[in-house]
């Protein structure tokens, strides 16, 4: 089995409903995002997929949640825009983009020392 990962970032705003700490008020983060895909076979030239293609797919996908207030998006009106829910959103919605490759996990860092891993 091969695993490939690409990283990118989004800089967006959010606030957390039902949370008593500082994140209850509107503020921004630069979230780092790593997506790991896996496949058990290689193409005819020995690649799982082209890093350039995968990176562009991720960048294009993340453009939809970059420089926005996440709370304005329908998904995050239903699900609090925590780092956990952001990771799940990316995993579920980016999966069709990379299909037939499978996403093994999505890791989202809210800061250099705090991250969430989501996988299905
Ligand atoms: Zn926050």
Mind summarizing the main beta sheet?
4 strands, antiparallel
If you consult CATH, what is the topology? Tetrahydropterin Synthase, Chain A
Report the end-to-end length measured between terminal Cα atoms: 17 Å
Q: What is the mean pLDDT?
A: 97
Strand order of the largest sheet: 1-2-3-4
| SSE string, helices as H and strands as E | EEHHHEE
The count of helical stretches stands at 3
> How much helical structure, as a percent, in the residues?
25-40%
Structural class by helix and strand composition = alpha+beta
Give the uncertain stretches in residue-range form: none
The whole-angstrom Rg is 15 Å
3D structure, described in words:
The protein is α+β, with helices and mostly antiparallel strands. The protein has a single domain, classed as 6-pyruvoyl tetrahydropterin synthase/QueD (Tetrahydropterin Synthase, Chain A). 28% of the residues lie in helices and 34% in strands. The chain is built from 3 helices and 4 strands. The protein has helices at 51-62, 74-78, 83-98; strands spanning 2-14, 27-39, 102-111, 114-118. It has a 4-stranded antiparallel beta sheet. Strand 3 (102-111) and strand 4 (114-118) form a beta hairpin. Helix 1 (51-62) crosses helix 3. The protein is elongated and about 55 Å long. It starts with a strand and ends with a strand. The model has no long low-confidence stretch (mean pLDDT 97). Residues 14, 23, 27, 29 line the site of zinc ion (ZN).
């Amino acid at each position: 089995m091969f695993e490939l990962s690409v990283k990118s970032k989004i800089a967006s705003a959010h606030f957390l409903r039902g949370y008593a700490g500082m994140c209850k008020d509107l503020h921004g983060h630069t979230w780092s995002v790593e997506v790991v895909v896996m496949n058990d076979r290689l193409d005819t030239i020995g690649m799982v997929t082209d890093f350039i293609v995968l990176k562009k797919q991720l960048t294009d996908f993340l453009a939809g949640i970059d420089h926005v207030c996440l709370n304005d998006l329908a998904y995050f009106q239903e699900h609090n825009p925590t780092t956990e829910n952001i990771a799940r959103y990316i995993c579920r919605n980016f999966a069709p983009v990379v299909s037939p490759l499978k996403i093994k996990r999505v890791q989202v860092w809210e800061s250099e020392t705090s991250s969430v891993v989501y996988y299905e």
